[in-house]
């Protein structure tokens, strides 16, 4: 079987200014990251959506060195905590 080169949307280190969201989107789409930054700046000036979009991207896009995003890490920690304790907060015995 042949290997497929699958593009993944990730926050990159190359071209990173704050968290790498714009550089990751630019690399994924195939455009310059500065165009993405300009688009977010315009969206921020006209209603503030740019800041929200950047924050959502930062939380949902995994870093290029990791397989999971920040939100996925938080959910996994909460699930691990909820499976090891019952409602009273006491530890359940491992089966």
TrEMBL record:
Major location category of this protein: membrane
Q: Name one GO cellular component term.
A: plasma membrane
Q: Where is the Phage shock protein PspC N-terminal domain?
A: 7-64
Q: Which residues form a coiled coil?
A: none
Q: Which InterPro entries does the entry link to?
A: Phageshock_PspC_N, PspC
Residue spans crossing the bilayer: 38-60
- A Pfam family that this protein carries is PspC
Q: What is this protein called?
A: Phage shock protein PspC N-terminal domain-containing protein
Keyword Aminoacyl-tRNA synthetase in the entry? The reply is no
Q: Which keywords label this protein?
A: Cell membrane, Membrane, Transmembrane, Transmembrane helix
Does the keyword Cell membrane feature in the UniProt annotation? yes
Query: Where does this one sit in the cell?
Result: Cell membrane
Task: Give the signal peptide, or none.
Answer: none
List the membrane topology term(s): Single-pass membrane protein
């Amino acid at each position: 079987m042949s290997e497929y080169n699958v593009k993944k949307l990730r926050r990159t280190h190359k071209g990173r200014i704050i968290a790498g969201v714009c550089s990751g989107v630019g690399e994924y789409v195939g455009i310059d990251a500065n165009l993405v930054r300009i688009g977010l700046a315009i969206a921020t000036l006209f209603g503030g959506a740019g800041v929200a979009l950047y924050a959502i991207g930062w939380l949902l896009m995994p870093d290029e060195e990791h397989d999971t995003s920040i939100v996925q890490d938080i959910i996994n920690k909460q699930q691990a905590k909820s499976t090891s304790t019952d409602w009273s907060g006491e530890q359940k015995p491992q089966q």
